[in-house]
Design brief:
2 helices; transmembrane; transmembrane helix
């Protein structure tokens, strides 16, 4: 049982570290774009994709009838 808990803790730690690393990379990219004055261009180009993803997620959530994720 202890080995299983160790593996679960290791998996959680790796997942948390991955999320933190991804957030740092995204922050660095946004900061670089802002310094070059290209953040608004990137935001304008990414907006349609983000809206489409939001609509797809809303369809997925609203389309389920009492089921699990």
């Amino acid at each position: 049982m202890e080995t299983y808990l160790d593996l679960m803790l290791l998996r959680f730690g790796l997942l948390a570290a991955g999320i933190v690393a991804l957030a740092l990379v995204l922050f660095a990219v946004a900061l670089g774009l802002r310094r070059r004055g290209r953040l608004e261009d990137a935001r304008r180009l990414a907006e349609p994709a983000v809206r489409a993803a939001g609509r797809a997620l809303a369809r997925r959530v609203n389309g389920r009838k009492g089921g699990r994720w």
